[in-house]
Amino acid sequence: MPLTLTPLQHIPLIRQGDDLADIILNSLHGTELQDNDILVLAQKIVSKSEGRMVNLASVTASEQATELAPLLEKDPRLVELILQESNEILRTRKGVIVVEHKLGFVCANAGIDHSNVVGEGKQNEDYVLLLPEDPDRSAQHLRDEIKKRTGKTLGVMIIDSHGRAWRNGTVGVCIGLSGIPAIMDERGWQDLFSYTLKATIVGVADELAAAASLVMGQAAEGTPVVHVRGFPYPLGEGALKDLIRPKDMDMFR
Predict the structure, then answer these.
(1) Domain end (from 78, 101, 129)
(2) Residue where a domain terminates, one of 80, 108, 129
(3) How far apart are CA 145 and CA 214, in angstroms?
(4) What DSSP line would sit under 144-195, residue for residue?
(5) Do 157 and 107 belong to one domain?
(6) 3-state secondary structure of 244
(7) How far apart are CA 89 and CA 72, in angstroms?
(8) Number of domains, the chain
């Protein structure tokens, strides 16, 4: 089966408390869900529905945030939120603070975003959006709701845009999943010439996340959900922790 990725059209702007399962099902427009299909969601709509939008006017900067803010050229209130969402600071430079997020992965600015974030009756820049508290749980909940309403067993993945240690540019990566393997261990498989693979472990969730991010877009496209069919691996249970490299194996720490 060929791999097809179809961005769903007419997804409305998401607000806190919105029923994402209902919105997604109403946006399929003729696409009939099948068992083993996958739905990939942009992190923003999950965070918005879960009330993770924060008005900076409600944030009081700590002493540490106030000291770091001029070095980073960032609002001290934003720095405070970054610190609250992080386990530790790894690197800093003007405009960027690289941290280990509370979810365990390394990212810039704790994944906190200004883009496409609008608060009720307030200027855009007053509001920022935090990552979901537990993206695996969010994916599981949506998967359960869709199965309850359709009877179909799907995979659900939540993605975000992250930078990479070795290369320029951001790419889509998986930050939460349910019903999808995060990695595929191909050690012991044979290649075309009967060579047995010895070190190949594929981050299949991140590969799909990058493909879905490509068709979602990053600006004003308004297509934060992608329907996937023909994923070339058997579906199974994975978790975000499967994708996170242990600290003692992380050569960039």
Answers:
(1) 129
(2) 129
(3) 27
(4) HHHHHHH----EEEEEEEE--SSSSS-EEEEEEEESS-S-EE-TT-B-TT-P
(5) no
(6) coil
(7) 13
(8) 2
- 58: tokens are 């409600």
CB < 8 Å & 24+ apart, contacts of 120-126: 122/55, 126/55, 126/56, 126/57
Q: Helix or strand or coil: residue 50?
A: coil
Over range 123-152, report the average pLDDT.
92
AA letter at 179: G
Per DSSP, what are the bridge partners of residue 113?
129
Lowest mean pLDDT among 133-137, 178-182, 218-222: 218-222
* CB 142, CB 134: distance < 8 Å: no
Strand order in the sheet with 106-108: 86-93, 96-101, 106-108
**Hey, what amino acid is at 248?**
D
Residues 71 and 33 in one domain: no
196 DSSP 8-state letter: B
Query: What DSSP line would sit under 105-126, residue for residue?
Result: -EEEGGG-B-TT---TTS-GGG
- Which residue reads 């009877």 in tokens? 151
Asked whether residue 58 carries a pLDDT value surpassing 90, the answer given is yes
